[in-house]
Design brief:
- The protein is an all-alpha fold.
- It has two domains: 1-30; 33-81, no CATH class.
- The chain is built from three helices and no strands.
- The chain has helices spanning 4-29, 36-58, 64-71.
- The longest helix is centred in the first third of the chain and has 26 residues, at 4-29.
Length: 81
């Protein structure tokens, strides 16, 4: 028969070790804060990906060039002068 007191002690010890491990992992996984230019680039990349995949789902199949123009506020369709 297993001594329940010993089992609780081992479980408590394991919990402490697990807590230390989780704390260490959190420290390792902390990322430095994003600088403004990096944040803007990341948001732009997400916007481009969103337009690309949503155009595929909608069946419009926008080209990468047209997506870039749409993101940067340029006319997506060529204009005749």
């Amino acid at each position: 028969m297993i001594n329940t007191h010993m089992k609780k002690q081992r479980t408590g010890h394991f919990d402490k070790l697990l807590d230390k491990l989780v704390k260490k992992e959190r420290e390792i996984q902390k990322l430095p804060p994003l600088l403004a230019p990096d944040k803007a680039k990341l948001e732009n990349d997400f916007a481009i990906d969103h337009l690309y995949y949503s155009s595929r789902l909608e069946g419009t199949h926008l080209s990468d060039e047209r997506i870039e123009k749409a993101i940067h506020g340029e006319s997506a369709t060529p204009t005749k002068e």
